[in-house]
Amino acid sequence: MVYSCGACRYYPQAMIETAKKPEHLPPAFTNDLLPWIESSLAAGRNIMARSNQGILLMFEGDGLRLVVKSAMGCGPVRTARQKTLEREYAAYQRLAGVAGVPICHGLLARRYLLLEFIAGTAYREASWQDRDDWFAGLLKVIRAFHTRGVSHGDLKSKSNLIVGHDQQPHVIDFGTAFTLQDGFHPLNNRLFEYGKRLDINAWVKHKYHGRYKDASAEDRELLDYSKIEYLIRKLRGRPMH
After folding, report:
1. Given a cut of 50, is residue 19 above it in pLDDT?
2. Class of domain 13-116
3. Who contacts 102 (Cβ-Cβ below 8 Å, separation ≥6)?
4. Which fold has domain 120-235?
5. For the residues of 212-228, what is the DSSP string, one character each?
6. What is the pLDDT of residues 90-126, one digit of tens each?
7. Which of 41, 169, 199, 229 has an alpha carbon within 20 to 30 A of 193's alpha carbon?
8. What is the DSSP letter of 182?
9. What is the pLDDT of residue 212?
10. What's the pTM value of the predicted model, to 2 decimals?
């Protein structure tokens, strides 16, 4: 889904001198990438998509295909969106090396998130050589990032799932992710566990197109709605399993 999002101003190029350098990319490349990003945003070029959080740019060059996420807006709105982007970056740092999750190349100039472009087909339009095998792989991906202390929180949105050209499952857009904190943080722990339930429930929903009566007994056992979700589903007359 595409939304319009206005831009107001861009940070100066000099900011890269004090910013944390992106991982895995040579400094000479990132020095050239920053003005490319800023000029693209200013001129409205190379835009891959617009969302309610900001703008996605597509970069192709030097043997790389990158997605660049930029939080947009002004004032408190811009600040809130930037915090979301930083939280997403923290989630990708936790997920480094997890198969099925885009490689994160860092947060350039402290404000542009650089991500691997996943070549494939959007879940909504995809076809499979073996659909059951794909969903088994997707569950492994989900459990892998849960093990790393990250829950996605928005897997019900089909736009966050990709069937790769390699026929493997890929999960993108961790902007709504919950990251488990170390130590005693009751609220954070509850949000993380809630996000895990949302992820698994979404997996079952997608696998059976929402027809829970068709689900295997093993997969129905994975469903775990919160009290609020149970109430909403009951009021809407939707099946509980």
Report:
1. no
2. alpha beta
3. 67, 92, 115, 116, 117, 118, 170, 172
4. Transferase(Phosphotransferase); domain 1 (1.10.510)
5. GGGS-HHHHTT----HH
6. 999 999 999 999 999 999 999 999 999 999 999 999 9
7. 169
8. S
9. 87
10. 0.82
Tokens describing residue 235: 């009021």
205 with 224: CB under 8 angstroms? no
Q: Does residue 33 contact residue 128 with C-beta atoms inside 8 Å?
A: no
Q: Can you say whether the dihedral through the CA atoms of 28, 11, 116, 5 is positive or negative?
A: negative
Distance CA(175)–CA(146), nearest Å, equals 15
d(CA 116, CA 149): 21
3-state SS of 68-79 is EEEECCCHHHHH
Where helices occur in 72-216 by DSSP H, the ranges are: 75-94, 131-147, 186-207
Calpha distance 110→215 (Å, rounded)? 45
The ranges assigned to domains in the chain are 13-116, 120-235
Can you give the pLDDT at residue 228?
54
The packing angle between helices 186-207 and 131-147, to 10°, is 180
Token pair, residue 119, equals 């070549």
